[in-house]
Amino acid sequence: xxxxxxxxxxxxxxxxxxxxxxxxxxxxxxxxxxxxxxxxxxxxxxxxxxxxxxxxxxxxxxxxxxxxxxxxxxxxxxxxxxxxxxxx
Length: 88
Fold this sequence. Notes:
Elements: E1 3-12, H1 19-29, E2 34-43, E3 49-58, H2 63-72, E4 77-87
Antiparallel strand pairs: 1-3, 1-4, 2-3
GO molecular function: translation elongation factor activity
Keywords: Elongation factor, Protein biosynthesis
Family: Belongs to the EF-1-beta/EF-1-delta family.
């Protein structure tokens, strides 16, 4: 089996959300076979900042769903959007 890279955009609930606290919680909500790669904070709109993240893991059935379920469980995150998925 190969590996897959998933790139997500996480949108906090408000401009006052603690971005660094959200980022620090990400590794704890991922499946055991997922690796938290790089992250970048980008201005979005009206003071909101998007958190762009990369997750790497084994290309298996249900992997992306498990990652998304974990990311959706994060406190202060309103939206999780899969931006890109590719085999590596």
